[in-house]
Specification:
The chain is an alpha+beta fold. Helices cover 26% and strands 21% of the residues.
């Protein structure tokens, strides 16, 4: 990882001009077939093994189980009931424990792309593994991962399988990254729970005034969506609960924020 960081400190263009302009105008970029099927399959086998091994003893990995329901809670993976695996859940920060996760989400090619889009060397902030759609309300990432320097944050969403339209695809508003960030009563972008209704009202009004149209991301296995920290996005409703939407989301701060 240190060698990669040194390489990224000497950036060179890896995206074409059309891709750079598209990201600046729309706040996102899609890389089709970025991950080879073999790499994705290796990653999925590692996740399967993680669940199996969690039944054999304690682990540092934590998981949010039964997400977006009244039963949602955060527990150690080894304490999670096994049936929680077959309901919406979120494995948190596997990159802290596993080198293969770090190598997957921030390989040399992705590091170069993110350096170009962020304008600074990216370092992993967190990873979130999903088996089902998140069904998360529309939001901007700086609410929950507020960078120390203004907007030094970028995210990736990698498809670990083909996504079905009924599996709760990720949804987003192209161009919404240009909306002036909402500031809470303390003058900062970080979310204050009691003020979230005002935030949502502000964002809804801005989206309407700019006549922005929502889009769905229905990727193929190995596709990647990269988005700006201020892109207004969320997870749509799961229409068919039998369908999975396996993915890994990674947020990156700029090196200077560490």
């Amino acid at each position: 990882m240190r060698k990669l960081i040194e390489l990224l400190r000497k950036p060179k263009y890896v995206l074409n001009q059309a891709q750079r302009v598209f990201f600046e105008e729309n706040g996102y970029l899609i890389l089709e077939g970025f991950y080879p099927t073999s790499e994705v399959d290796d990653f999925l086998r590692a996740i399967d093994d993680l669940w199996v091994q969690s039944r054999k003893g304690s682990t540092n990995i934590v998981v949010d189980i039964f997400t977006e329901t009244p039963n949602q809670r955060r527990v150690k993976l080894s304490d999670a009931p096994y049936d929680a695996r077959y309901a919406p859940h979120k494995l948190n920060d596997l990159f802290l424990e596993y080198q293969n996760v770090r190598d997957f989400v921030l390989n040399q090619a992705m590091g170069a792309i993110l350096t170009e889009l962020l304008g600074k060397v990216p370092l992993i902030c967190n990873t979130l593994n999903f088996t089902y759609g998140s069904q998360q309300d529309f939001h901007t990432d700086s609410l929950y991962m507020t960078p120390l320097k203004k907007l030094n944050l970028i995210a990736t969403w990698a498809a670990l399988e083909d996504c079905h339209p009924d599996a709760g695809p990720l949804v987003y508003y192209p161009g919404s990254h240009k909306i002036k960030p909402y500031l809470f009563s303390n003058g900062k972008m970080g979310a204050i729970h009691e003020e979230m209704s005002a935030y949502r009202k502000y964002m809804d009004e801005q989206v309407a005034s700019l006549n922005l149209k929502v889009m769905r991301f229905i990727p193929k296995k190995g596709d990647v969506l990269i988005w700006h920290s201020q892109l207004f996005h969320g997870g749509s409703k799961i229409e068919d609960k039998s369908k999975t939407r396996k993915s890994i989301v990674t947020h990156f701060y700029a090196e200077e924020d560490y």
